[in-house]
Write a structure and sequence with these properties.
Largest sheet: 5 strands, mixed
Shape: elongated
Protein name: DUF4349 domain-containing protein
Distance between the termini: 26 Å
Number of helices: 8
Structural class: alpha+beta
Helix content: 55-70%
Oligomer: single chain
Organism: Candidatus Komeilibacteria bacterium CG_4_9_14_0_8_um_filter_36_9
Order of helices and strands: HHHEHEEHEHHEH
Keywords: Membrane, Transmembrane, Transmembrane helix
InterPro entries: DUF4349
């Protein structure tokens, strides 16, 4: 077939060529539209996934805030004063919470430790109910590591935080201040014994009373700090595992409403997107019929 014949053939079939080009354009535009529609996908799966992620974000324990006693490093002192505080969170299997509390009490008794606070309760209702308990323990510093190791064997450890605060500088400053206040008291007592005037004695008596209160205050601070140094504090949280159906729940009405609106929006986008192509196809069909009628 010559080139002239081919050109004549193309001229005779120009309408089919135009239809072919339109179909190609529809396929290219449709693929990008399908990708866009897939990303928007009716919204129901995305809603459920976002709720799960929100629950996962909210789950877990909080951070432990530790006190600070830093009032000077005192590097010249070799016998360091250390205050230890630990926070342990564990999770036990369902039905084993009471046994875990018994194990905790046995560890306390065998270590000559002290249980300062015990708070046990339940969360949820019905099949969602589970036990949770919080405990504050005081244990001698020499037995601290052993007790922590035993407590970690109760259930599955979820988190563990430990703080060792060097209070040597603060302790030393308190001792110095206490000695100064005691010396001041001795001077007031000496002046009181030497005073002859009644007003002077009354004034010195008030000063001696206030000075004794000041000395008692510093002594109590040292006693409390000694207790914190000699006995470490351990906070223990034991949580019973939740039911496997804990997270099972019906989809909220608001979620269904959002999904319905997203679906309607998606359908409207499809209809509006297809209208121009349907118009073009209608015009092409009309042209084809008009050409055939002329023949």
């Amino acid at each position: 077939m010559s080139i002239k014949d081919q050109l004549l053939k193309i001229k005779d079939n120009w309408l089919l060529i135009i239809i072919f080009l339109i179909v190609v354009a529809l396929l290219v535009g449709g693929s990008s539209f399908t990708a866009k529609l897939t990303n928007n996908s009716f919204g129901l799966d995305r809603i459920v996934m976002n709720e799960d992620m929100a629950y996962a974000t909210g789950k877990g324990g909080g951070s432990m805030i530790m006190p600070s006693y830093d009032q000077g490093f005192a590097p010249e002192i070799e016998d360091r004063k250390i205050v230890k505080i630990a926070s342990l969170s564990t999770e036990v299997d369902r039905g084993e919470f009471q046994d875990s509390v018994i194990k905790l009490n046995n560890i306390i008794d065998s270590s000559d430790a002290f249980l300062l606070t015990e708070n046990v309760g339940t969360n949820g209702t019905g099949f969602k109910e589970y036990y949770i308990g919080g405990f504050q323990i005081k244990v001698e510093l020499d037995k601290y590591d052993s007790v922590v190791s035993q407590l970690k064997e109760i259930g599955e450890v979820q988190s563990f935080d430990e703080n060792a605060d060097d209070v040597t500088g603060s302790y030393t400053n308190l001792e110095i201040e206490l000695e100064l206040e005691k010396e001041r008291l001795i001077r007031y007592q000496a002046l009181y014994n030497e005073a002859k005037d009644v007003n002077d004695k009354l004034n010195l008596n008030d000063r001696i009373f206030n000075q004794e209160r000041t000395i008692k205050y510093y002594e109590e601070r040292l006693t409390n700090l000694d207790a914190k140094i000699d006995y470490s504090t351990i906070y223990v949280s034991i949580t019973e595992k939740r039911s496997k159906f804990f997270e099972a729940s019906f989809v909220k009405l608001s979620s269904l409403a959002r999904a319905f609106v997203n679906s309607v929006n998606s359908i409207l986008v499809i209809v509006i997107t297809l209208i121009p192509y349907l118009v073009i196809l209608g015009l092409l069909y009309a042209i084809i019929r008009w050409v055939r009628n002329r023949k």
